[in-house]
Write a structure and sequence with these properties.
This protein is an alpha/beta fold. The protein has three domains: 4-164, Resolvase, N-terminal catalytic domain (Rossmann fold, 3-Layer(aba) Sandwich), CATH 3.40.50; 181-298, Putative Large Serine Recombinase, Chain B, Domain 2 (Hect, E3 ligase catalytic domain fold, Alpha-Beta Complex); 304-391 and 460-543, no CATH class. It has helices at residues 43-56, 78-88, 100-103, 107-118, 136-164, 196-207, 212-221, 240-246, 277-298, 354-366, 372-420, 424-456, 465-473, 475-481, 484-494, 514-517; strands spanning 24-30, 60-67, 94-97, 124-127, 181-183, 190-192, 225-227, 234-236, 255-258, 261-264, 312-314, 322-326, 335-339, 351-353, 368-369, 495-500, 506-510, 519-520.
């Protein structure tokens, strides 16, 4: 078949004379499975953007080509080669792609494209990210973009090769290993440990809709634990909340969030993931709905908030003391108590009024001392935990983004109901559900934007020295003035646990960074062995 320019009806026509609506276009979408295309849109997104471009410009699309293959080296893309062959045969006139680097990142195939433009075997190219005209200047600019794409690909390849030699880009994280995994003694890569099956089962339970409390009981029953990097401490899932946090981590389908890096582990070694990305999205949707349900139940009229659940520990038997409301002897009205409900506990008094506990907490806050020396220690400690804070925030973003995807999937299903079902009631319900999900996604996207803003500049987490000292000096007054929910939140941010002995004296463990920067006036009983936890809620925005 003759090239477009050689056809009699096109004799003497220039590019500016073409009626583009009469041309036959194909869409070409490509995304490499390697790190070179990590920032590129997904293939479905590219196709959608190209179709939107065609619709806006009244272009006729006759076929869509898609492939997952690098364009760095010529001759390795069967789909691309097949498209070029059919273009040479005159079956199509033009190509629509998201960006020129989707077509090629090597000079051999770049030369083929430009040569086919010269011979009018390709009449036109349209890009979502770049204007193009089949003129001498247009082809010159296109050639330059192809050169830049090759240079970018080459430079990126060199950086990746260097990065593979470093721990971060090899998929090796700092701190405690992930639940269900250990680090290989030679490669330091993550490999399954003896608890791998239990953690995988926990994810399966979550995907199936199991509440976090049920999963916590399952993990405790099977004594799931992990050893700290120095081998001196054994961690367990101490609470349902610790389970909830681990179930937000995209690591378990193969994405390690570390500092500002997003590491796809399968690109670096034979990582054995526990779940698929699809199941991760389902699990986040389950968790989000569970939290929403819990919040709704807690705002019901008459629902009393019980603070410090699981935090106040009986120092006699080491069991958590349960908060509850009882009628005191003088019948003056129900009062909040902490009760040790362990039948085997030898504690003399099984109950203590919550007011006595909070009075001692206020006293601890009053006697906390912060000065210039403490501020320097605070800065040093903050430097060491900033990455952990960023990682935690990024896991939160990942979880919310997964919920957004799950909602979009549900929106698509509800939209299908509207099309397929001939029932006004069903359509009305589907429309309402779609509207609710779209509002929910708007809120989630706003929350993601706010979290992204927090980690955009880690230095923004720091307090100035005067602000730091003033804030710390007023902690006692702030917690006294706070409502019961705020008291609970603040205490949880500062303390690991609170222990009550037989004399109703409070002993405590501080979280970081408080452990490193706080000194207490006079010697306090208890508290000897401070511990660190993953709840690194930086003091800078504590209140």
């Amino acid at each position: 078949m003759k090239p477009w320019k050689d056809k009699p009806e096109n004799q003497g026509k220039e590019y500016k004379d073409i009626d583009f609506s009469t041309l036959r276009y194909v869409i070409y979408a490509r995304k490499s499975t390697t790190s070179e295309d990590r920032q590129a849109h997904s293939i479905p997104d590219q196709v959608k953007l190209c179709k939107d471009l065609a619709k806006r410009n009244n272009l006729h699309v006759v076929k869509v080509y898609m492939e997952s293959q690098s364009a760095k080296t010529a001759g390795r893309r069967k789909v691309f080669d097949g498209m070029i062959k059919e273009l040479r045969q005159g079956k199509y006139d033009g190509i629509i792609a998201w960006h020129p680097d989707r077509l090629c990142r090597n000079m051999l195939e770049a030369g083929v494209i430009i040569d086919m433009l010269d011979s009018w075997e390709i009449v036109d190219l349209k890009f979502c990210q770049h204007p193009f005209e089949n003129t001498s200047s247009g082809k010159m600019m296109l050639g330059m973009l192809f050169v830049f794409s090759k240079q970018y690909s080459d430079a990126l390849s060199e950086r990746v090769k260097r990065g593979v030699q470093q721990d971060a880009t090899r998929g090796i994280s700092n701190g405690a290993p992930k639940w269900g995994y250990k680090r290989d003694t030679e490669t330091k890569f993550y490999v399954p440990d003896e608890n791998y099956g239990y953690i995988r089962d926990a994810w399966s339970m979550r995907v199936s809709g199991a509440p976090v409390k049920e999963i916590h009981k399952f993990l405790k029953k099977n004594k799931v634990s992990r050893t700290s990097p120095n081998g001196k401490r054994t961690d367990t899932f101490k609470s349902a909340e610790s389970v909830r946090l681990f179930l937000k981590d995209p690591f378990y389908y193969g994405v390690l969030l570390q500092g500002n890096s997003e590491i796809h582990l399968a690109e670096h070694y034979d990582f054995k993931a526990m779940i698929t990305e699809e199941d991760y999205i389902k699990a986040q949707a389950v968790g989000y709905k569970e939290v929403k349900k819990y919040n709704r139940e807690n705002v019901k009229a008459g629902k009393v908030f019980l603070p410090l659940k699981g935090m106040v520990i009986c120092d006699e038997c080491k069991h958590p003391m349960a908060p509850g409301r009882h009628m005191p002897g003088d019948k003056s009205g129900r009062v909040l108590y902490f009760d040790c409900r362990n039948k085997n506990c030898k504690r003399a008094q099984k109950s203590i009024m919550a007011g006595e506990v909070f009075d001692q907490i206020y006293d601890i806050f009053d006697r906390m001392e912060f000065n210039s020396k403490a501020y320097k220690r605070y800065l040093a400690e903050l430097d060491s935990i900033t990455d952990e804070v960023v990682d935690e925030i990024r896991r939160g973003i990942s979880s919310k983004q997964a919920v957004i995807k799950a909602n979009k999937n549900e929106i698509d299903k509800e939209a299908q109901k509207i099309i397929a079902v001939n029932s006004d009631t069903v359509k009305e319900r589907a429309n309402k559900r779609i509207n609710d999900l779209e509002i929910e996604n708007q809120e989630l996207e706003q929350e993601c934007d706010e979290l992204k803003a927090k980690i955009k500049n880690p230095d923004a987490l720091r307090l100035e020295e005067k602000e730091f000292v003033n804030l710390m000096k007023t902690l006692g007054d702030k917690i006294r003035a706070a409502d019961i929910i705020q008291k609970d939140e603040l205490v949880r941010k500062v303390f690991v646990n609170l222990y009550l002995d037989n004399q109703k004296r409070l002993h405590y463990l501080l979280k970081e960074p408080f452990d490193s920067v706080v000194s207490i006036k006079e010697n306090q009983s208890g508290g000897g062995g401070w511990v660190r936890t993953n709840d690194q809620a930086v003091m800078s925005r504590l209140l």
